[in-house]
């Protein structure tokens, strides 16, 4: 039977106790490990929450509106009455539209942690260039002016209650295009009448703008708030007759067969 030396505390069956410093060090290592695990779990939880919540996604990952490079987009249409004594004696009709164009963006990249060896690359993407066509018409004198982006296109005096003008416009040059020009040329047409004719719909449209062979109200829409102000215009009814069976547009009177023939 083994004996125990009570004075020295040594025993063949009992190991020598570990020092206090060693125990403290092991305890600290366990605490640090638990902290690291807790931080890692918190990071994973935060990443999962960000993936589940659309509001936490970065702007680069958000879905951007699709832009058709061949389309012309409608943005807004408005008519203002500007007459001093009789507001309706002078009118201003404004059509705002968007044309896709290429824009280049430069991206800077860093190749190492010392911020040396930086490089840049150019990327092209489509944006919307905003334009507006305007008709100003004094129904008292008959004088009217048509402009695009502030540049006068045509002015004359309407002899009757209906006015009409056709032209071709270059947005790149900002002027009327010649017949020989082909690039960046858009055919345009404005038709207007002073007041709805008799026996027409109460929603009769007195102002029509045609661009690129299409009626403005039939142009596609896009989420253009990122590019232009005044979004939210909604298409009007495209049918020739209103709910009461009466004509709805001056275009249906001037060109009754336009819906089937179309425009060039």
Provide an overview of this structure.
There is one protein chain. The protein is built from 3 helices and 12 strands, in the order H-E-E-E-E-E-E-E-E-E-E-E-E-H-H. It is globular. Helix content is 16%, strand content 37%. The N terminus is likely disordered. The chain has 264 residues and is α+β, with helices and mostly antiparallel strands. The protein has a 5-stranded antiparallel beta sheet with strand order 1-2-3-4-5, with no helix packed on it. Strands 7-6-8-10-11 form a 5-stranded antiparallel beta sheet, with no helix packed on it. Strands 9-12 form a two-stranded parallel sheet.
Defining key terms:
disordered N terminus; five-stranded antiparallel β-sheet; alpha+beta; globular; 12 strands; 37% strand; 264 residues
Secondary-structure element order, N to C: HEEEEEEEEEEEEHH
Question: What general outline do the C-alpha atoms trace?
Answer: globular
Indicate the low-confidence ranges by residue numbers: 1-9, 14-18, 50-62, 231-240
User: What's the end-to-end separation, in Å?
Assistant: 116 Å
Cα-based radius of gyration, to the nearest Å: 37 Å
Instruction: Give the strand order, joined by hyphens, for the main sheet.
Output: 1-2-3-4-5
Strand content: 35-45%
Helix segment count? 3
**What is the number of E strands?**
12
Q: Mean pLDDT, as a whole number?
A: 73
Q: Secondary-structure blueprint of this entry?
A:
Blueprint: H1 20-52, E1 73-81, E2 90-109, E3 119-138, E4 143-148, E5 151-157, E6 162-170, E7 175-176, E8 185-193, E9 200-205, E10 207-211, E11 214-215, E12 247-249, H2 250-254, H3 258-261
Parallel strand pairs: 9-12
Antiparallel strand pairs: 1-2, 2-3, 3-4, 4-5, 6-7, 6-8, 8-10, 10-11
